[in-house]
Amino acid sequence: MSNCTDGTLSFDFQSIGNLVLLFILMLGCGMAISLAEFKSVFKQPRGIIVAMFGQFVFLPLMGFAMARAFRLNPIQSVGLVVMTSAPGGSTSNIFCLVSSKNRPNAPPFRDE
After folding, report:
1. Which comes out higher in pLDDT, residue 109 or 28?
2. What's the count of helices (H) and strands (E) in the chain, helices before strands?
3. Which residue has the higher pLDDT, 96 or 79?
4. Is the model more confident about 105 or about 72?
5. 109 burial class (0-12, 13-18, 19+ CB within 10 angstroms)?
6. Residue 76 in 3-state DSSP?
7. SS3 at position 45
8. What whole-number distance in Å separates Cα of residue 4 and Cα of residue 94?
């Protein structure tokens, strides 16, 4: 994506194109949800709390445990913990949008 070996940061056209396409895709997913649907998710915050705990506490701890169990070097260990900390919900939102499922309830995993 970038080349910073000489202290400068440069992007190639493919990287910029990928970022623009991702932005358009996420904007389209967000525009498909009405404000009322978005507000309804916060009426029962239990799902959001569970999802945030899992994403930002449980998964990084599992990444750390795997790094220790497999005796990874420090660079690989940091990479694994960062990868397990990075939210990956945008893919599930795309699948919900394409399959016409209940998008407002998809990110926090609410049960009805």
Report:
1. 28
2. 6, 0
3. 79
4. 72
5. middle
6. helix
7. coil
8. 32
**3-state helix vs strand vs coil in the chain, percent to 5:** 65, 0, 30
| CB neighbours of residue 6 within 10 Å | 7
Convert the pLDDT of each residue in 45-55 to its tens digit: 787 788 788 88
Task: Name the residue type at position 22.
Answer: L
Residue 89 tokens read as 């919900």
> What is the C-alpha to C-alpha distance for residues 93 and 105, in angstroms, rounded to an integer?
10
* Domains in the chain: boundaries: 32-105
- Residue in this structure with the two tokens 């990444």, named with its chain if needed: 63
Q: Which two tokens stand for residue 64?
A: 């750390």
Q: Which residues contact 8 (CB under 8 A, 6 or more apart)?
A: none
Residues 70, 92, 58: CA angle, nearest 5 degrees: 40
CA angle 21, 22, 26 (to 5 degrees): 120
